[in-house]
Amino acid sequence: MTLTIGYIGFGKSTTRYHMPYTLIRDNIRIKTIYNHRRKPELEAEYAQHQIEFTDNLDVLLQDGDIQLVSICTPASTHYDLAKKALENGKNVLVEKPFCTTSEEAEELFALAKSKGLIAMAYQNRRFDSDFLAVKEVLASGKLGELVELESHMDYYRPEAPDAPGKYYDGAFYGLGVHMMDQIIDLFGRPEEVSYDIRSVRNPNNPDDTFEVQFFYPTLKVIVKTSHLVNIPYPKFTLHGTKGSFVKYGIDQQETYLKAGVMPGETDFGVDPESSYGTLVYVDANGETREEIVPTPLGDYGRLYDQLHDAILNGTSKLVSDEETLTNMTILEQGFTAKNPRVITL
């Protein structure tokens, strides 16, 4: 069966991180794209796909063929647009962050449930290649009991001209939302969280640096981002009672997309062998082993595959309401008092 979708928003999020994956899937049809300001030159690039473009939101919301509305607009608009879509009987997929507060998220989930619809956050980085490598290593059991995991998403971008914004316009809501979702996917809701969220390059701007630590009964997780890192940390570092795993290099899908190489093309998103992870562990015979772990192929389109099945076949959706609400709670609690500090969840 074919899932018919419409997009709200026609910027980089839609054209780079969504459409390259949905356009190549035979079981997904993009019928309509709404943008408040038409972009004829960009629209012309998609003429072969017979997509309807409109600056009238009702054209999309009142179309009985459209089953899913994917919302790719600024965070401040997510709640209102998702609510309108749900009220018009549409399932919704909402770009990160899902909303600006957990209260908004709770209301949307309750509305979706009351109408028998799905509302879900677009957590495409569950299909990052580096994260898939971590999941494979954990599933192997070779690390023993995991005691520490550190996740980084760093850049070297020293220039930061004035760009004032709200708390949800900074790095914590923009990048941390993905990194923390990966941790919540692996380990669930932590018992305690510590925060250090700052604007280092330009105090007039929202945060650009954060270190958040999750505390579980026997596990500590560090999630960290900085825009002033010129010698890269490992993307992931894991330590367990039997060994360690280190993976350098971020998922390559975004790199290929920026270069104009699309999903389905030869070697799209393939991780170079030089970035394969290293696993060192003690085996059952007490011998120390070292393995190079090939990186699985990432594919953000798999999120749409799972959502297709959830909407049309009644399977469980990829990102649960509880996981999104945990993420939203951790995000907004980061700005309720002075940093650094520790809170109990």
Automatic annotation (TrEMBL):
Ranges for domain Gfo/Idh/MocA-like oxidoreductase N-terminal: 4-121
A GO term, aspect molecular function: nucleotide binding
Domain Gfo/Idh/MocA-like oxidoreductase C-terminal: 135-339
Pfam families for the chain: GFO_IDH_MocA (PF01408), GFO_IDH_MocA_C (PF02894)
InterPro entries, per the entry: Gfo/Idh/MocA-like_OxRdtase_C, Gfo/Idh/MocA-like_OxRdtase_N, Gfo/Idh/MocA_oxidoreduct, NAD(P)-bd_dom_sf
Family under the similarity heading: Belongs to the Gfo/Idh/MocA family.
PANTHER family from the UniProt entry: CONSERVED EXPRESSED OXIDOREDUCTASE (EUROFUNG) (PTHR43708), OXIDOREDUCTASE (PTHR43708:SF7)
Cited NCBIfam families: PRK10206.1
Protein name (Swiss-Prot/TrEMBL): Oxidoreductase
